[in-house]
Each structure stands twice: as structure tokens, then as C-alpha cells.
Design goal:
Layout lengths: L2 H16 L3 H13 L6 H7 L5 H15 L4 H5 L1 E4 L2 E4 L12 H10 L5 E5 L5 H8 L5 E6 L2 H13 L6 E5 L14 E6 L14 H4 L14 H9 L4 E10 L5 H10 L3 E6 L5 E7 L1
Helix pairs in contact: 1-2, 1-4, 2-4, 6-7
Length: about 280
């Protein structure tokens, strides 16, 4: 089998599980099994190079798992996010492109030398993307999952940010959450915000992600209420919270903030949907 033949086979098979993304996933799988870089892949297609038997077996193993709706990012163990190559496992949420606008907003608000808190850090994607785009900053990354924090710290270390990244095992609903942790210039979070009753209707790939990172309670707002109760007292003067939200939760967040005397600015993602909010005391 040659690389072009493998590419065609993957595209045909993958169309059943990822539709229009079959081309992208076929490329990612071939890059992974052949060790070929993104820039080199087009040349491999032109050169019509054969693939050895071991590589074909590896490709078929990946394909079988993907056809069972296992997320490709978990199979490959990595994802690209904000230009960073991050390790991911089933212990953490898979970073999505729409979340990059949350990172961009947090970066713009974090001053040089500033201090960031990332609540529900998962793979560390948001905190690390902010650190990568700011100077002399540091981040405290909270998560209830020890395995997820291990992934986050591994990513921080591989990117050279281990001295600027402090993982903290903590439950946002614990009475002592953030007590003694001081003040932050920016507090960011992509909390669970999917309504409990909607979980069963999600794509199987999404349901393969940690339930604790998806389920936002009956109305999807459980974590926002807790964050708005705790975080404002930990924001430095002139600082802000930046939260990711569901596309239909903007008005609910405005109301929650208004009830607490907080300002709330909604911003959109690349598709024009409400994706986040900036909250100030």
C-alpha cells in the first residue's frame, strides 16, 4: 500500500464518523503512523511512497478505534491548540478551537508580570496558551482531577513553563476553595456548562470525555454561580474574570452578574456565537 492509497482508504472509511472532517483526520492519522510532519505530508502524497507492513497495521489499529467513535485526539494522545502541541488523555477535556478566543481575551487582559488563575484547567490548555503569549506571567491551575493535573503539568514541563505553572488539586465547591491563595489579575475558566438532560444527546465522541468536565447541572449554570460567589474577592483592582459560556447562556450570565453587582461583557467565537464573557467587580 502506498501513502496515496492509504489516504484514500482512510478518507472513505472515516466519512462515516466525521463527515467533512474525514480529509483532516486521514492526514492526521497518516502523519502520526508514518512520523511525517505537517509540512512534509503533501510531498509524501506526490512521491507515491509505499508504506511498510508495520505502519499499515498501526494505521488499521487507529482506524478501528476511530470507527468506534473514540476521539482521534485520545487515540493520538495529542492536540494542537493556540499553536501549542499538547498531550491529552481521557482524563481531560479535549481543547477546542472555539476556546482560543477565551485565551486571546485573557491574554489581552493579563499585564506583564501578572498572575493568572485557571479553574478547571484539565490539560492546562488555557493557562499554557496564556503563558505562551504573555511576558513574565505565572499561573495557578486548579482541577479536581489528579490525573488531569498530571497531564497539565506534563504539558507545562514540555513547553518550558514548569516554573511559571503551579497545579493545585482542589474542588471548586469545597468550603476552603482558593482560601489563602491571594489575588489574581485574571481568573479564567472553561467550566462544565452543558445541561444534565442534554448530555445523552451529545455526539458519542463528546460523551467519551470526562462527565465531570461537561455536566453543568440542571440549567447548565451550577459552576457559574459558584465561581461568581468565590472569585470576585480574589481579583486584584483592575482585574477581571474571563469565562467560557454556552452559545445560549449569554443572557443568563448577564442576569447572574447583575444580581451580584458585577459587570458582564459577552464576546463571540469565530463562528459569531456567544462564547465567553468578561466579568469585572
Amino acid at each position: 500500500m502506498t501513502i496515496p492509497q492509504a489516504y484514500r482508504r482512510l478518507r472513505e472509511q472515516l466519512s462515516a464518523v466525521c463527515g467533512d472532517f474525514s480529509d483532516y483526520e486521514a492526514r492526521r492519522i497518516l502523519e502520526y503512523v508514518t512520523g511525517c510532519g505537517v509540512r512534509d505530508f503533501p510531498w509524501k502524497l506526490i512521491e507515491n511512497q509505499p508504506i511498510d507492513a508495520d505502519t499499515v497495521c498501526k494505521m488499521e489499529d487507529v482506524l478501528v478505534r476511530r470507527l468506534k467513535h473514540e476521539p482521534l485526539e485520545y487515540i493520538l494522545g495529542e492536540v494542537w491548540f493556540c499553536g501549542l502541541r499538547l498531550h491529552v488523555t481521557p482524563d481531560c477535556l479535549i481543547p477546542q478551537a472555539d476556546t482560543e478566543v477565551v485565551c486571546e481575551r485573557a491574554r489581552s487582559l493579563l499585564p506583564q508580570g501578572g498572575r493568572l488563575a485557571d479553574i478547571g484547567t484539565g490539560s492546562g490548555c488555557i493557562a499554557l496558551a496564556v503563558l505562551a503569549g504573555t511576558k513574565n506571567t505565572s499561573a495557578v491551575a486548579y482541577d479536581i482531577s489528579g490525573p488531569a493535573l498530571s497531564v497539565a503539568y506534563e504539558n507545562a514541563r514540555s513547553l518550558g513553563f514548569s516554573t511559571r505553572f503551579c497545579p493545585v488539586l482542589s474542588d471548586v465547591f469545597a468550603e476552603d476553595f482558593m482560601k489563602g491563595d491571594g489575588f489574581f489579575d485574571v481568573i479564567v475558566s472553561n467550566p462544565p456548562y452543558i445541561r444534565t438532560q442534554d448530555i445523552a444527546e451529545l455526539a458519542p465522541e463528546v460523551r467519551a470525555e470526562p462527565l465531570s468536565a461537561l455536566d453543568g447541572g440542571a440549567d447548565g449554570l451550577r459552576f457559574y454561580r459558584r465561581l461568581l460567589a468565590v472569585c470576585p474577592t480574589h481579583i486584584r483592582r483592575g482585574g477581571a474574570m474571563v469565562l467560557e459560556i454556552g452559545y445560549d447562556e449569554g443572557e443568563a450570565l448577564r442576569l447572574l452578574c447583575r444580581e451580584r453587582g458585577l459587570s458582564c461583557e459577552i464576546f463571540q467565537d469565530f463562528g459569531g456565537n456567544d462564547r465567553g464573557c468578561v466579568i469585572r467587580p
